Amino acid sequence: MSNNMPNESLFILGIALLLLVGACQQKVDKPAAAEPAPGFSQALSETDPTNRDFPGGRGADQLILYTPAFGDRTGTNKYGTEAVVIDGRITNISGNDSEIPKNGFVLSGHGKMSSWIAQNLQVGHQVKVADSRIYVTKTAQSDLYLADRFLKESMRHFSILPDENRNSAYDHYKERSDKQRSLAIKAEEEKQHDVAMTYAKSAVEEAKKAYYSSFPSREEELRACWYVIKETSPEELEKNIKAFAEIGFNAICPQIIYSGYAVYPNAHADLAQNPAFVGWDPLAELVRLCRKYDIKLIPWVWTYYVGRSQSPLAANKKDWLAESWRGEYGSRMEIDYHFFCASRPAVEDFWLQVYRDMLTRYDVDGLQLDYIRYPVSEPWENGYCYCTTCRDNFKSEHGRDPHTLTPDDETLWQEWNDYRVAQITRFVGRVRKLVDEVKPDLDLSADVFPVLSESLVNKQQNWGSWLDKGFMDELFIMSYTHDPGTVATEAIELSERTPDGTQGYVGLAPFMGLTPATLLEQILAAQEGGAEGITFFHYGSLSNDHVEALKLGPFKKKATLPN
């Protein structure tokens, strides 16, 4: 610890005094602007829904208002965003199942309305309800409220920072907080609305930077991104990979086989190179660039999902496609998704040949299996796979055509689920054997849904069994939510399930419109939940603001890969 570093108690006391002084300086008894404040409105879908077909009664793309009359909590699931309003002001924005305040309400959005909340509302905004609409007002005071919140929240992180980092974090915090208070005073004293708003906005930016800088930066963790290749030349690709490394990433998961194509040439007689890349080899270039910039290269490949109806694999290998209970190829739950049947030996042999060739030809560091599952099979009438092969196999073992079964046939229905789960697990085991034979030092991984019980019921994906059998070197869960608390819960389950020698990583979703602050909060939640690294879906979804927040906070120090 350096000589000018305060001990922890004095340090925390100093921060508290800074905040107290700032709060006193920011107290305002008069409006900052004489002009009317800008505002906007949005129609509500429903207030206190009575139909509970969905968790909390919140349906697809709805914006719901929950009042104390509804109950103590909203009861919603993780697929949304919620803003808590107390005494007419937004005091918190999070993910799901929020406590409904007695002196306020909760705005809850799903789908499009979830994104609308994330992109348009912020802590500090003033909100009123009238005529089935919400009316939002943004003033200089609302921005200053948010700035003050950022500074207060920064305090939570100082106690978890390593001693050697706390001093520099304190200095950065003090510098930013001093600037924030100076700007806040100018905003409060300014009579002209637009000028006051400019000062207040700048105060928020300074407070944000102080907040971002307060997040810990680990020295050992995987920092990865799923990467959708769109470059049309090696030169363009190098420009992005260089930027990728400069941000602080140490691993990349580029999409290599997807939608019935490979990005590289001569993958297989039945697997054409994507026309967008004809004339060059993106995978060969990625190998070269990842060595140059010291990045772990983990090719990301689609397995059973082979694209929509226009996919060449879906069109040319129709006899390999999975069929639903209704006799359809394209999924109703995942619109027009076409999957290969997991019971077909020809399907397994095809992919094993493709993987063997790729691992032999290219010096990659990993192989990541995605869509290593059935199509979503809930409700059961839309489930898979009921092709002739699956039905004949099951009937020969159990004496009953699975097409005649329903969940009411409890014992046989469980046998039918077990049969489907076993097909996926068997193939994962065969890929494990292939990797051990061809390239034993390579890391085999998979992208999976985070809640094992849901994966088993909805997608016949038993990743817990894969871990128990030692099939996985790394496992990536897709914790796609706005709620840091959900990320923490899912990271804990992953950590508890992951055996020694296997790395567990949490995938986060900036594509959902996460604010930079929320993204950093989710990274911290994943770290504290026991994850040994994080990855984002996807690189193209990271804004300049996301990148700035990462470089000020969790990525401010270079990290080595976990052992």
Structure description:
The structure is a single chain. The chain is of the alpha/beta class. Helix content is 41%, strand content 17%. It has 16 helices and 20 strands. It has helices at residues 8-26, 112-120, 140-158, 163-189, 193-213, 234-247, 282-292, 312-316, 345-361, 388-398, 410-438, 452-459, 463-468, 484-497, 516-528, 544-552, and strands at residues 39-43, 46-47, 63-66, 80-86, 89-94, 104-110, 126-130, 133-137, 222-227, 251-258, 261-262, 296-297, 300-302, 305-307, 338-339, 366-370, 443-448, 474-478, 503-508, 533-536.
**How are strands sequenced across the largest beta sheet?**
9-10-13-16-17-18-19-20
The percent range for helix content is 40-55%
Under the CATH scheme, which architecture of the largest domain would be assigned?
Alpha-Beta Barrel
Mean pLDDT, to the nearest integer, reads 91
Q: N- to C-terminal separation?
A: 27 Å
Q: Work out the number of β strands.
A: 20
CATH topology of the largest domain: TIM Barrel
Q: Shape from CA axes?
A: globular
Biggest sheet overview: 8 strands, parallel, barrel
Q: Approximately what portion of the residues adopt beta-strand conformation? A: 15-25%
The CATH superfamily of the largest domain is identified as Glycosidases
